[in-house]
Design a protein that fits this description.
Deoxyribonuclease I, Chain A, 19% helix, globular, Endo/exonuclease/phosphatase
């Protein structure tokens, strides 16, 4: 089955699968138009020497995977400038935000995020670095091996004009254990500083497993701030393995869930899944995207 690159999928999608030729995607089911569909996707930086899995050989599959879920809000990680441009050109109906982690311009990977233009009105936006100098582009601290950052946006939902949504997307360091803990603490501090009165959505590649120290630091709830792990909240205990790093191999389920969607407790989590879409036995990235469908009264 041939699917155009620039495509808008009008049906919605959940965790069961359907086979189209050699492409396995999620099976469509209708959901309410007011629900908020969220996806977090580490798309693997496009300059990596990945051979048969190089960006040029899989970029169309990245678009197909995103379009199939049809997110209202999309957080991407490891997104270089030319990859962001490709997504901008091939995802219909989205506005994007992202800057390079090295200089706050176009240099280095971005934590680029996307939102549906006709649904949301931008109220404010920004970026900060995961360091002791968060307002300094390219800064790093603790034992971080590289500059790491967050991009965020505050939105008004035209379908539910009652409370703004604060959407933050990030990527934690892959080597520094202390940096991951401190980054989680910094994000909680920034949510309190920037997002009061908002419904919260946090997406990212956290390079840490369920119940790890960074996980506990992010989800250590207080009376001021309660965050829910959407997948853990919505998934039964007898669910299959929850690996989100695939290494480009299809069917990988055993391993750590290092990609998360966190939400404030004023959301109702209708579903949360690990999207194991594959094409001819290969995944569109070396991470499975993760998804959640949210609603509120």
């Amino acid at each position: 089955m041939s699917i155009p690159i620039s495509v808008r999928i009008l049906s919605t999608w959940v965790c069961s699968t359907v086979l189209f030729g050699s492409m396995i995607l999620s099976k469509p089911l209708l959901t309410d138009a007011k629900d908020v569909r969220v996806m977090s996707f580490n798309i693997r930086y496009g300059s990596a020497r990945d051979g048969e899995n190089h960006w040029e050989k899989r970029k169309e599959n990245v678009i197909k995977t995103i379009a199939a879920f049809n997110p209202d809000l999309l957080g991407t990680q490891e997104t270089l400038g030319f990859q962001k441009q490709y997504l901008d050109e091939n995802l219909i109906g989205y506005t994007s935000l992202g800057v390079g982690r090295e200089d706050g311009g176009q240099t280095g990977e971005m934590t680029a995020l996307f939102y549906k233009t006709d649904r949301f009105e931008k109220l404010s936006e920004g970026h900060f670095w995961l360091s002791e100098s968060p307002n300094s582009p390219g800064s790093k601290s603790w034992d971080s091996s590289l500059p790491r950052m967050c991009s965020w946006i505050k939105l008004r939902d035209r379908k539910a004009d009652d409370q703004p949504i604060f959407f933050l997307n990030t990527h934690f360091d892959h080597r520094g254990p202390q940096a991951r803990i401190e980054s989680a603490k910094l994000i909680r501090h920034k949510l309190d500083e920037l997002a009061r009165g908002c419904r919260l959505i946090v997406t990212g590649d956290f390079n840490a497993a369920f119940q790890s120290e960074p996980y506990k630091a992010l989800f250590e709830n207080t009376k001021e701030l309660t965050l829910l792990d959407s997948y853990h909240t919505a998934t039964p205990d007898n669910a299959p393995g929850e690996a989100t790093f695939s290494g480009f191999k299809s069917g990988v389920v055993e391993g750590a869930r290092i990609d998360w969607i966190a939400v404030s407790d004023d959301w109702k989590i209708l579903s949360a899944n690990i999207d194991r879409t594959e094409f001819d036995g290969r995944t569109p990235s070396d991470h499975h995207p993760v998804t959640a469908i949210l609603t509120h009264e």
